[in-house]
Amino acid sequence: MLKEFKDFIMTGNVIDLAVAVLLAGAAGLVVSGFVNDIMMPIVGYFTGGVDFSDMQIVLSEAIVAADGTVEKPASAIRYGAWVNSIINLIIVGFVLFMIVKAYNKTKTPPAPPAPEAPKGPSQEELLTQIRDLLKK
């Protein structure tokens, strides 16, 4: 059983999948950084200085003790983080679309089918002609 597992893990598909997952994680971090650090400040600038990542609906305020420690953190719906995630998804989808489009352009188009050779008479027709010629 251990040998079968080793053979399964060492197949090319599993290794390719592992590399793809690691690259996707790294690409996700890059895209998240791009959205949070580059795109959202630009969007915030054009929306009057709004920072979407801080937007939330507070359901219950945090309870802070007299010494300044937080006894109970605030409960909030962070819809601004959700907006960032939606923008993140749109950017990732667009980048994947561009990659697939470029990949499809690199593929060679299928060769057109070769023209069929002109059909001659069938064997039966040839034999019939030979028979008729021999009768004469």
UniProtKB/TrEMBL annotation:
<keyword id="KW-1133">Transmembrane helix</keyword>
<protein>
    <recommendedName>
        <fullName>Large-conductance mechanosensitive channel</fullName>
    </recommendedName>
</protein>
<keyword id="KW-0813">Transport</keyword>
<keyword id="KW-0472">Membrane</keyword>
<comment type="function">
    <text>Channel that opens in response to stretch forces in the membrane lipid bilayer. May participate in the regulation of osmotic pressure changes within the cell.</text>
</comment>
<dbReference type="GO" id="GO:0008381">
    <property type="term" value="F:mechanosensitive monoatomic ion channel activity"/>
</dbReference>
<dbReference type="InterPro" id="IPR036019">
    <property type="entry name" value="MscL_channel"/>
</dbReference>
<keyword id="KW-0406">Ion transport</keyword>
<keyword id="KW-1003">Cell membrane</keyword>
<dbReference type="GO" id="GO:0005886">
    <property type="term" value="C:plasma membrane"/>
</dbReference>
<dbReference type="InterPro" id="IPR037673">
    <property type="entry name" value="MSC/AndL"/>
</dbReference>
<comment type="similarity">
    <text>Belongs to the MscL family.</text>
</comment>
<keyword id="KW-0407">Ion channel</keyword>
<feature type="transmembrane region" description="Helical">
    <location>
        <begin position="12"/>
        <end position="35"/>
    </location>
</feature>
<feature type="transmembrane region" description="Helical">
    <location>
        <begin position="79"/>
        <end position="100"/>
    </location>
</feature>
<comment type="subunit">
    <text>Homopentamer.</text>
</comment>
<dbReference type="InterPro" id="IPR001185">
    <property type="entry name" value="MS_channel"/>
</dbReference>
<dbReference type="Pfam" id="PF01741">
    <property type="entry name" value="MscL"/>
</dbReference>
<keyword id="KW-0812">Transmembrane</keyword>
